[in-house]
Design a protein that fits this description.
The protein is of the alpha+beta class. The chain contains ten helices and 14 strands. Helix 2 (about 40-55) runs antiparallel to helix 5 (about 160-190), helix 7 (about 230-235) packs across helix 8 (about 240-255) and helix 8 (about 240-255) crosses helix 9 (about 280-295). One of its GO terms (molecular function) is diguanylate cyclase activity.
């Protein structure tokens, strides 16, 4: 908190910054809005906003923070002065910005040199004399703050506070829309049962790997994994047990493939695995580890000990391939070969 005898701050509730008539407006550069239309990620949106807010307020520093956890705010964009660096996690307690966030009120510190709050001390040490922090509010929830600072003390007016709060609320809406779009894209590409990616995302990733190969000759491998005698498992133990087998399989495979590898459920008990920057010899070792781990594994469900095996067919992209389906078809044929040879095998498609 600021020392009472020296406190130089102003606090505005949202209602104090919205009680203007319908003719009141704020002006934004057309280039700002135009540049936002090309922001293809949340980070790009925040970087663009920090840049233009800095210009609009002629600020020596502009930044955006978003709640990281119950105790911290995280800086996601900074334009100008680096007195508080990006990697610094701002405590919500005992900071000026934290009070603005927790109270959902715009706050102005007219003189950072008289503050004993951590962020104001850092700003002052970095040559900044005043700051203004606006809560980013959407549907009554504060998700972060939009902040400006200046080397001068007593720099900001109530008119500027109105403008910054309007921008903060608008940015909060943009952030929510980007997060919702990201969530929608994730739901559209995720298998509901196993939490892995689905066939739609597999098609996209396969195409991307094929394009990298055509452009840069970076090899990759597609593997197709199928649970052996899955219908018998369902008939014997029930479909809920079958669902547990697929979940158990997913967890097991993830433990034995590389971090950069891609796993998707592409139908029923069938999964696809993409191994980027990988050749057939290395892929064989990976798939054998997966197969062997599953063969040696059992788990308990509904008073039963469940054991199952898998068959895997795989193929490496070749110089004559022009489409990922060329690779997929060879892997699929190899899977059928593994099934025909008493299952529980790994086979290479050529």
């Amino acid at each position: 908190m600021l020392k009472k005898a020296q406190r130089i701050e102003r606090i505005f509730a949202p209602s104090e910054l919205s009680g203007f008539n319908e003719s009141h407006c704020i002006h934004l550069p057309v280039a700002f809005i135009y540049e936002l239309t090309f922001a293809d990620s949340l980070n790009a949106v925040l970087d663009t906003v920090a840049k233009w807010v800095g210009q609009i307020f002629e600020a020596d520093r502009a930044s955006i923070s978003i709640q990281k956890d119950a105790e911290h705010l995280q800086l996601y964009a900074i334009n100008g002065n680096q007195a508080i660096p990006m990697e610094f996690a701002l405590p919500i307690a005992k900071t000026f910005i934290g009070r603005a966030f927790e109270s959902s009120k715009l706050m102005i510190c007219d003189d950072t040199t008289v503050s004993d709050e951590e962020d104001c001390i850092m700003l002052s040490s970095g040559g900044l004399g005043s700051c203004m922090d606006a809560p980013m509010i959407h549907c009554g929830v504060t998700i972060g703050t939009l902040n400006v600072a200046d080397t001068r003390t007593h720099c900001y007016s109530k008119a500027q506070a109105i403008q910054l709060q309007c921008l903060a609320n608008w940015i909060a809406l943009n952030i929510r829309l980007h997060l919702q779009l990201k969530e929608m894209n994730l739901l559209a590409s995720t298998d509901e049962l196993t939490g892995t990616f689905n066939r739609r995302r597999f098609t996209f990733e396969s195409h991307e790997n094929m394009q990298r190969f055509l452009q840069s000759r970076i090899p990759y491998v597609i593997g197709i994994l199928d649970v052996d005698l899955f219908k018998d498992l369902n008939d014997r133990y029930g479909h809920t047990t079958g669902d547990q087998v697929l979940k158990d399989l997913t967890a097991n495979v993830r433990q034995h493939i590389r971090k950069q590898d891609f796993l998707a459920r592409i139908g029923g008990e069938e999964f696809a695995i993409i191994l980027p920057a990988c050749v057939a010899e290395e892929a064989e070792d990976i798939f054998e580890r997966v197969r062997e781990s599953i063969e040696q594994h059992t788990f308990s469900y509904d008073a039963h000990r469940i054991h199952y095996t898998v068959s895997i067919g795989y193929a490496e992209v070749g110089l004559d391939d022009q489409h990922y389906e060329d690779v997929f078809k060879r892997a699929d044929k190899a899977l059928y070969k593994a099934k025909a040879n008493n299952r529980n095998q790994v086979c290479l498609g050529v």
